[in-house]
């Protein structure tokens, strides 16, 4: 059920092809100056400081989408950190590629998969500069990953293009109203989500869910709380 290099890069121009992904993970060049990403945080340092920074349970939205998933589907977990979402997808029988900028987080993701008797493939890369494949995945997830609008829009375009016809897109992120609660997420409102943002950026997809919701927030060293999140689920039309 593996995601081989031919399947992943089949629609990438030869000049942009990358090395095959291995079970132990693949490291692509990540610009050191950009290690401090997403709200100015140094995620490698944060992950190195504590095990399972955001716990090991998958996101509430992902759990609710279980009936839409099928064993054998190819899934891309974008910004998957320590693998709480990617590993759960693998447990459902999906062929998972987990991508993140933190090598420490990816190592823990592979370890979590091994403890749960499943397997994911990992890729160390900056998603802003990764040569995204086209029509390669049945599922693309973006769970609590935030960028400024100037970087978010190209990311959304790449995510949409990476979907196969009929493929599913799942985004869960902090809503702009999260600033009222202060239980996590960026402090810059431009990095937060709103229903109108995803409705505009993914206008070519069939929207299945697009709403705000209160969700439990887990982070090591902090008491459990709740935050206002955006829940977005959409499907690429089978014929485009």
Give the tags.
Rossmann fold; alpha/beta; single chain; 240 residues; 7 helices; two-stranded antiparallel ribbon
Characterise this structure.
The protein has 240 residues and is of the alpha/beta class. It has a single domain, classed as Rossmann fold (3-Layer(aba) Sandwich), CATH 3.40.50. It has seven helices and ten strands. It has an eight-stranded mixed β-sheet. Strands 2-3 form a two-stranded antiparallel ribbon. α4 runs parallel beside α5. The radius of gyration is 17 Å and the shape is globular.
Reconstruct the topology from this structure:
Blueprint lengths: L4 H5 L16 E2 L8 E2 L3 E2 H7 L10 H5 L9 E5 L5 H8 L3 E6 L2 H13 L5 E4 L12 E7 L5 H14 E12 L20 H7 L4 E12 L7 E11 L5
Parallel strand pairs: 1-6, 4-5, 4-7, 5-6, 7-8
Antiparallel strand pairs: 2-3, 8-10, 9-10
Helix pairs in contact: 4-5
Q: What is the second-level CATH architecture?
A: 3-Layer(aba) Sandwich
Order of helices and strands: HEEEHHEHEHEEHEHEE
What is the rounded Rg?
A: 17 Å
Q: Kindly state the mean pLDDT as a whole number?
A: 82
General shape? globular
CATH class: Alpha Beta
Distance between the termini: 27 Å
Query: What is the strand content?
Result: 25-35%
Helix/strand/pairing category: alpha/beta
Question: What is the name of the CATH superfamily?
Answer: Vaccinia Virus protein VP39
Looking across the biggest beta sheet, what order are the strands in?
Answer: 1-6-5-4-7-8-10-9
Helical stretch tally? 7
Can you tell me the residue ranges where pLDDT is under 50 for at least 5 consecutive residues?
1-40
Under CATH, the topology can be stated as: Rossmann fold
Question: In percent, how helical is the residue content?
Answer: 10-25%
* Tally of DSSP β-strands: 10
């Amino acid at each position: 059920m593996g995601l081989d290099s031919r399947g992943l890069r089949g629609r990438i121009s030869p000049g942009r092809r990358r090395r095959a992904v291995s079970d132990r993970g693949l490291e692509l060049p990540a610009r050191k100056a950009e290690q401090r990403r997403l709200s100015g945080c140094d995620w490698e340092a944060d992950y190195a400081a504590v095990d399972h920074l955001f716990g090991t349970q998958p996101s509430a939205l992902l759990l609710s989408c279980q009936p839409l998933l099928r064993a054998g589907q190819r899934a891309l977990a974008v910004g998957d950190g320590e693998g709480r979402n990617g590993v759960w997808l693998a447990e459902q029988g999906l062929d998972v590629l987990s991508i993140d900028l933190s090598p420490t987080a990816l190592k823990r993701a592979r370890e979590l998969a091994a403890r749960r008797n499943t397997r994911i493939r990992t890729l160390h890369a900056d998603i802003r500069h990764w040569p995204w494949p086209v029509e390669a995945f049945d599922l693309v997830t973006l769970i609590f990953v935030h960028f400024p609008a100037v970087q978010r829009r190209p990311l959304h375009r790449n995510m949409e293009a990476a979907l196969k016809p009929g493929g599913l897109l799942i985004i869960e992120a902090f809503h702009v109203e999260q600033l009222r609660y202060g239980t996590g997420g960026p402090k810059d409102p431009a990095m937060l989500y709103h229903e109108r943002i995803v409705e505009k950026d993914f206008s070519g997809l069939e929207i299945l869910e697009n709403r705000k919701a209160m969700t439990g927030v887990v982070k090591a060293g902090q008491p459990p709380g709740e935050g206002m999140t955006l829940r977005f689920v959409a499907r690429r039309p089978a014929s485009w």
